[in-house]
Design brief:
globular; 10 helices; alpha/beta; Arc Repressor Mutant, subunit A; 3 domains; two-stranded antiparallel sheet; about 290 residues
């Protein structure tokens, strides 16, 4: 039974994505090449590693075993690379970090910049994921650490504080509710709405379903500035992080009012495996972000 590191990376990418196609794209392989490697792995091991279904693939019991050991092997290889980077010019290390929408768009750009400028041999592979998916990925070892909302269960991970994220309603300055100090979420559900095309909107949509209603989204955009621009001309109301609304108010005729619902004020947490040591670069970044928070 012989698997090389490329085989292990491909297999983990497929297991994480639940798709051979997406796993192949992640590892820069064609679908045909990825499928051939999988067949060779299964033939070499004499066991079926994946169950193919209409909605994608799932690891078999043998596949779960391989994925577990592959994570350990690749973690050790990553740790070796990070430690050797101090002695070998040009050898770079990469830190896989998953985070929710607010962390990626509003907090991380400013906090990452000085650290990356001081650690030019380290790259950060940053991806947006819903908090529940981030917790699962960090627990599986497919990310060094994550940034999540405290609304999700972070067991069995350790956590450190990162930031406080408050959601606000953005609305035109002449809107009847613009002068209120707070707004309850159910009070805006009858209004036209400008949504966000990202993980944050999933969280907001779930809150609407909990009260038995659905937001009337006229459009969904990829940036908070885009949402605020639509709100400014009367397309509808929006919900964005308070820091984003504060920034957009400087140049647009909009107002922002805090949501009074408890779910709209979230503590953002750094989550990581306490039982598995991080490689040196990831540990330094984690400490930097925790201190900054």
């Amino acid at each position: 039974m012989r698997f090389d590191l490329a085989d292990l990376r491909l297999f983990l990418a497929i297991v994480e994505a639940g798709s051979i196609t997406h796993g192949a794209q992640t590892t820069n392989l064609s679908v045909a090449a990825a499928s051939e490697r999988l067949r060779d792995m299964e033939a070499s091991g004499g066991v079926q590693l994946l169950e193919r279904g209409r909605r994608g693939v799932m690891p078999t019991r043998a596949g779960d075993t391989l994925a577990h050991h592959a994570r350990l092997v690749l973690h050790q290889v990553g740790a070796m690379h990070a430690e050797m980077s101090e002695h070998a010019r040009g050898l770079r290390s990469s830190i896989r970090v998953l985070a929710n929408t607010a962390a990626i768009t509003e907090f991380l750009p400013e906090r990452l910049a000085p650290w990356l400028a001081d650690h030019r041999q380290v790259d950060v592979d940053l991806a947006e994921r819903p908090s529940r998916e981030t917790v699962a990925a960090v627990a599986r070892g497919t990310a060094a650490f994550g940034i999540v909302s405290d609304a999700v269960d972070t067991t069995p991970l350790a956590t450190l504080p990162f930031a406080v994220d408050r959601l606000v309603v953005v609305l035109p300055r002449d809107h009847p509710m613009a002068m209120q100090k707070q707004i309850a979420f159910p009070d805006i559900l009858s209004e036209d709405y400008v949504g966000f095309a990202g993980a944050l909107q999933d969280h907001i949509d779930q809150q609407a379903l909990r009260v038995g209603q659905k937001l009337h989204s006229r459009v969904r955009l990829r940036t908070f500035e885009g949402i605020c621009r639509q709100v400014a001309v009367g397309v509808g109301l929006g919900i964005v992080p308070e820091v984003a609304a504060r920034r957009c108010r400087r140049g647009l005729p909009i107002a922002s009012v805090r949501l009074s619902d408890p779910w709209a004020t979230r503590r953002l947490l750094l989550c990581f495996q306490e039982t598995q040591p991080l490689d040196p670069a990831a540990e330094k970044l984690l400490a930097h972000l925790a201190v900054s928070g």
